[in-house]
Design a protein that fits this description.
The structure holds 2 protein chains of 2 kinds. By secondary structure, chain A is an alpha/beta fold. Chain A has 18 helices and 15 strands. The chains are: A alpha/beta, B mainly alpha.
Chain lengths: 471, 287
């Protein structure tokens, strides 16, 4: 390392002095045109030569540094090992997170943790990981992974099997859907960290005023929404996420599952089924029948939360994050919002799409043991409790949903546990991104009335079979 | 001096080498690499690349989503470029006339062009919003422009016209101002009216420039990505998915580099054909 720096220092000096000195020569000789032209040429030549020389030495220096950096740590390096933890931004006071990391460092002398935030958009996070992991980067050791990426990264060989971090007797600690999302071909490639699931938000005050119970079936939701809109035509009935994007897939799957349908079953594509047709027929009828406003066809999470949060809708499907926002002091719907599992079709059970984050271990990590210890620490009940309290993240460990301290601060956790127990992961396959693009477009076609559900499902079935059949 | 020049003349290769190297690295290599990728079965998450021959292109021809994207792209390009040229020409002719406040007016007209596309698209997304958007407010409508399969592509076209017309207007204004005033004076003396001045002086003298404007705008519109991606992301139901958006989704979301490169090559071929057609037209008009 030190040798590399010494070598690198010299050519820089050389390269910068050479043109200067020759330009001085050029000025002193620059009275006559001819001499100036010749001087210019000499100058150009010198600059080029010295630049080339500088470049070649620089290249050699870079190679040397790369060789040093790529190999084993040089002898005599400090015993301190730094592991890097990549995660998306946590919203709230950063001191609690920093304190957790300090605690880990205190428990593991000689290990330092550097936490680095990912870009904010999910697509960009995915790209960041893909570019770096594909390039064999060892710049980070522990990765926070969206639940839909685990199978893909495992198939690509980018993340290590972390089965030994999750003893079999510990499996019951976690939600089934979470474990399923972290497992590919029978092996565990990540440890569940935080979970999310689709919820039904409803206006307690409005339902009480017009004599409705929180709906348990989609038919009940439809009746309540239409009846309340009769009295309050300015209100929207049911808002959700209907833009053509990943969120639409999360929404639509909940209708399909709660009608007894699915996408894959034992590796077979089962999209084109009577249950799914029933589900999508209901989804497609929401806007034409006035249960949902037309604006849901471009709505993502925040626009729908904004509409419901400003008191302009009776029902909303959204993730748990919205609850704490509705309970803030300046919220127009404070104290008026209830949460429940999403409705289901008669004769079937409610289902919610699982979201959230799992922790994975970079297979190229230089310090796999330390990284594994950090994953164990971050997924421990203590760390999960602290992060849940400070940042409102929902723990992946079921036991914490009965934790008196947490429940006092976030009473909706009790309802959430039942929802999470019934949550399901999106299809766990390395080709999920391809599958999702097909589903997004077909679901969007149904929602906007461009395609009949039967056609859309037949098309989705064909395309999905084609995707999974490709080598 | 001549001796020095001769010395350069003897070794042109050495002096061209740096520029050739830079061009080779940043332009030629990526093009060749994409061509190579387009004949491979290659996914970032899969195994090593395997030769696919024309496999990816065969898949392309059978891919309904590709034809849908191509159709959307052609429609978007034709309609938006036609509108931009007509409106831009009108603006250019108006701005060439003397009137009070002409200088500030020229600056104002240029504003949309100066705003970064992504920012402008975000702005339009809010204007189109079905809930609180200003367009519904002004039109007294209750339409969700970007979520409606019929309106979405037209909403994107309107934004592109708003954004790119200033560019057309500016270039045509420059062209119009370079036409000598004597031509108009002479024609007017001969009793030519406004239409004949336009038809026989302005139009023929602007034509070569107009072709160049068309080349720029057509190629730009054909590659459109950022504006539509921000506005709709390709939805609803892929009705606004253009070739560039499709290629982006395949390359960077599903990581299928082989097939994605084949899509990129298809865009490349289309643009090459458009350019060739324009160059041929340009030659014709120069003769």
């Amino acid at each position: 390392m030190r040798r590399g720096r010494a070598v690198r220092g010299k050519p820089f000096l050389h390269a910068s002095t050479a043109p200067g000195s020759s330009s001085n020569a050029h000025f002193s000789a620059g009275i006559r045109l001819r001499a100036a032209a010749v001087g210019n040429l000499i100058l150009v030549r010198r600059v080029i030569l010295s630049t080339l020389r500088g470049l070649s030495v620089l290249a050699a220096a870079v190679l040397l540094v790369a060789a040093c950096g790529g190999g084993d740590p040089p002898a005599g390096a400090p015993a301190e090992r730094t592991i890097v933890f990549k995660h998306s931004k946590l919203f709230g006071d950063p001191t609690a997170f920093a304190a957790l990391i300090r605690e880990f460092e205190a428990q593991h002398p000689g290990v330092r943790v550097r936490a680095e935030t990912l870009p904010s958009a999910s697509d960009e996070q995915h790209q960041f990981y893909v570019i770096n992991l594909r390039g064999g980067s060892a710049d980070f050791d522990v990765l926070a992974l969206d639940v839909i990426w685990v199978a893909e990264f495992a198939r690509a060989g980018w993340i290590a099997d972390v089965g030994d971090l999750l003893a079999a007797e510990e499996h019951g600690e976690y939600f089934d859907a979470s474990l399923e999302s972290a497992t590919w071909e029978g092996r565990t490639y990540a440890v569940p960290w935080f979970v999310d699931a689709g919820l039904l938000y409803y206006r307690k005050d409005l339902l009480a005023r017009y004599g409705f119970e929180p709906p348990r079936t989609w038919e009940e939701l439809e009746r309540a929404a239409l009846a309340i809109r009769e009295h309050e035509p300015a209100l929207h009935g049911f808002v959700f996420q209907g833009k053509q994007y990943e969120g639409l897939v999360c929404n639509a799957l909940e209708y399909m599952w709660s009608a007894g349908g699915d996408v894959l079953r034992d590796g077979d594509v089962v999209l084109d089924s009577a249950a799914n047709r029933r589900a999508l027929e209901f989804l497609g009828s929401l806007v034409p029948r006035g249960i949902s406003p037309e604006l849901v066809t471009t709505a993502t999470e925040e626009p729908s939360r904004y509409i419901f949060g400003s008191g302009r809708a009776v029902f909303m499907r959204n993730w748990p994050y919205a609850w704490t926002l509705f309970e803030q002091a300046d919220s127009p719907v404070r104290g008026k919002v209830g949460v429940a599992p999403l409705p289901h079709f008669a004769g079937h059970d409610s289902a919610a799409t699982l979201g959230g984050w799992n922790l994975g271990l970079n297979r190229r990590s230089r310090y796999p043991d330390e990284a594994a210890a950090f994953i164990r620490f971050m997924t421990s009940p203590e760390a999960q409790r602290a992060l849940a309290r400070e940042y409102g993240l929902n723990p992946a460990r079921r036991r914490l949903y009965a934790d008196p301290g947490l429940l006092a601060a976030q009473p909706h956790l009790e309802e959430l546990r039942a929802v999470l127990d019934a949550a399901r992961p999106r299809p766990v396959t390395p080709r999920y991104a391809q599958l999702s693009q097909v589903l997004q477009s077909e679901f969007s076609a149904v929602l906007t009335g461009l395609d009949e559900p039967a056609e859309a499902l037949a098309e989705a079935q064909r395309e999905t079979e084609r995707i999974l059949a490709r080598p | 001096m001549s001796g020095a020049l001769r010395r350069i003349g003897e070794r042109p290769a050495a002096f061209l080498a740096p520029a050739a190297l830079v061009l080779g690295v940043v332009t030629l290599f990526p093009i060749v690499y994409v061509l190579w990728l387009s004949v491979q079965h290659y996914s970032l998450i899969g195994d090593a690349p395997a030769f696919a021959g024309v496999g990816n292109f065969a898949r392309l021809f059978a891919d309904a989503r590709f034809w849908n994207a191509l159709g959307n792209t052609v429609y978007f390009t034709l309609v938006s470029v036609a509108l931009e040229v007509v409106i831009g020409l009108a603006f250019a002719l108006l701005l060439a006339r003397p009137f009070v406040g002409r200088a500030p007016m020229r600056a104002v007209v240029l504003l949309p062009w100066a705003i970064p596309t992504v920012v402008a698209a975000r702005m339009w997304e809010w204007m189109y919003n079905g809930d609180f958007g200003v367009i519904n407010y002004l039109a007294g409508a209750d339409t969700n422009w970007l979520g409606n399969p019929y309106w979405a592509i037209h909403a994107a076209i309107a934004m592109d016209v708003w954004k790119a017309t200033p560019f057309v207007a500016l270039l045509l204004l420059a062209g119009r101002l370079s036409i000598p005033a004597e031509l108009y004076q002479a024609a007017r003396l001969d009793g030519a009216g406004a239409w004949r001045l336009f038809r026989h002086i302005t139009w023929p003298l602007l034509r070569p420039l107009l072709l160049i404007v068309l080349i720029f705008r057509t190629i730009d519109a054909f590659r459109v990505f950022d504006a539509i991606y921000v506005l709709t992301g390709g939805g609803p139901a892929n009705t606004t998915e253009t070739l560039s958006i499709y290629a982006y989704k395949v390359l960077f979301q599903t990581l299928e580099f082989g097939y994605g490169s084949a899509l990129a090559v298809a865009v490349f071929v289309c643009i090459a054909a458009i350019t060739a057609a324009y160059v041929w037209l340009l030659r014709g008009s120069a003769r």
